[in-house]
Structure formats: structure tokens, C-alpha cells
Amino acid sequence: MQPHRNTFIQKIILSLALGYIFFFFGERVFWSFPHPGDTLISNFFGWLLYSYSAYLTLIVIEHFRVRTWWAVFLAGAFFGWLTEGVIAMTLFGGEGQLPFPIGISWTGLAWHALIDVFIGWYLVMMFLNGNHYKKITFFSIALGIFWGVWSLAWALETPPIATTPDVYLLHGLVATILLSVSYYLFSKFRPAEFASSRWEKIGLAIPVLAFFMFVTIPAVGLFAAVLPVLFGALYFALKKNRDRETAANVLESLFERPKIRSYFPLFLSPIIAALIYNSGLALPTNFIIMGITAPLGFIFLGIALYKTFRRSVVM
């Protein structure tokens, strides 16, 4: 255990860096390219909102000693349901959304927990910290294919949503530059030394509870009762994890500094995505990906809960 702990400013920087990592996968890849109405201001405040949720997610990881793959997924579920349940409220269905209860998985589990947190942050940070150049390259190629294939569906919207090849590529390159900087800053500011105080936890939780009471409940009515059940299940599973985990949490394993060259393969992603998008194809790839990942979200949640409740003490 490190004797030194992050200052509050360092924790803010960690949260902003992690917030952008989540924002990149949850917004920039999801929307694929700039859409009508996108502005720098809206993206800036979107990043800050993601960073707020990221700070809370860091607290969950630290407090509940999150270390294993399945515990990381549960921490991702916390982030996903906070984002899509409490704040965006897409979890409950509605116009243009998948109906409840599918919304429990799409997009909170299927995208945010699986893609933003587990793959985009946890796996990639492990690859970067270990300087696994080949794994980073493979990930970047896979992300580029996924990003490009996913973006083919926007042309089938009513009205069609499209952009020019140069704007698509420029957006991807700029977003990836910021992603690389965020990975770098997250490593630089010593996540292994992250520790939250009781007052931080209370201070960050109060606005969320207030939003839930005065915005979420009036907006969705009785459906809001689902959230305490979902978060309650996460709490008891993660508490069981904390009681049985004696090893360092995942943040404490991120103490290596990635070499600069390890970030270079990340730029394969926007280039590959742009090549696929510029093919001019228009395919309902969104429904295919939703049809695969939404069930996966439920399956992974079930396995994560089972594994966490059934695990033995780790020495």
C-alpha cells in the first residue's frame, strides 16, 4: 500500500481524464461523427458530466476493492446505470428508445459497462501499462472496424445523418488525440494512490440523490423504483467483493508509465473507421450490434453477480 495519497487536484485530473475516456467510447464512438446540433460547448459539458460520474466510479472501485474482471464489470454497471438511468433516463424506454426492460442493458450494460469501462478503460489501461504493443495494435484495429461498421447505420435514420469523409476523419483523429492524452494523464497522476474521504463521498452523492428525487422520479414516475433495486443488487455484490478481497484494487495495479510509442497504434482506429464509412454503404448495423450486445449485457451481469457472490477470500 502506498503511503502517499493523491491531492484533491490530482483526483480531479484523474476524474477528468477517466471522464474523457468514458466520453470517447460512450459519445464520440457511439455518435460516430459530428451530428446536427453538436457544438463544442455541448461536448464540453458532456465531458464534465461524464467526469463527475467517473469520479463516483473511482470511489466505487476504491471503496469496494474492485480488482477482478467481474467486479470491474459491476463497477461499469454502476457507471452505466448512473448515466443512463438517473441522468439520461434511457433505461426506462420512451420515444426513440428500446422498451423497458431491454433498456436495463442497452445502453447502460451493453455499451457503457462493457465498452466504456471494461474494454475502453480497464483492458486498454492494462495493455498500455504493460506496454503490450501487439495487444494495443489488435485492439485499435478491432475498434476501428467496430466504429466504422457501427457508423454505417446513421445514413438510414429519418432524415439520414451523414458527414463528409474529411470531417469524419478529422473528428476521429482529434477525438483520438484527446483519448491518448487522457490515457497518459490517467497514468501520470498515480491512480494507485487514489483514496476518497467520507466527505467526498457524501458531497458527490448528494447532487445525484437530489437529481433522482426532483428530476428522475417526476419524469418517469413509478418506473424510478427500478433504480434502487438495481443499485441495491450492485451494492450487496460489491460489498461481498470488499469483504472477501484482500489484494490491491485495480487502481493500485496501474503504477507503470506506458512508453510513448504504445499510444501510436490507437490512431489506427479512426483511420480504419473512416475507410469503412467512406465506402458509402448504408446498413442497419445498429440493430445487429444491439441484438448481440444487449443480451450480452444481461449475461455478463448475471455471471458477474454469480461470480462475486460465490467467490472465496483471496489472499
| Shape, principal axes of CA atoms | globular
Low-confidence stretches: none
Structural class: mainly alpha
Number of domains: 1
Biggest sheet descriptor: none
Share in β-strands: under 5%
Q: Could you tell me the number of beta strands?
A: 0
Percentage of helical residues?
55-70%
Helix and strand element order: HHHHHHHHHH
Short descriptors:
315 residues, mainly alpha, 10 helices, globular
Brief write-up:
This protein has one domain.
Question: What does this 3D model show about the protein?
Answer:
It is a single chain. The chain contains 10 helices and no strands. The chain has helices at 8-31, 40-63, 69-87, 108-129, 133-151, 165-188, 198-220, 226-244, 268-277, 285-310. 39% of the residues are buried. The protein has 315 residues and is mainly alpha-helical. Helix 1 (8-31) packs across helix 2 (40-63). The model has no long low-confidence stretch (mean pLDDT 94). Helix content is 67%, strand content 0%. It has one domain (8-309). The longest helix is centred in the last third of the chain and has 26 residues, at 285-310. The radius of gyration is 19 Å and the shape is globular.
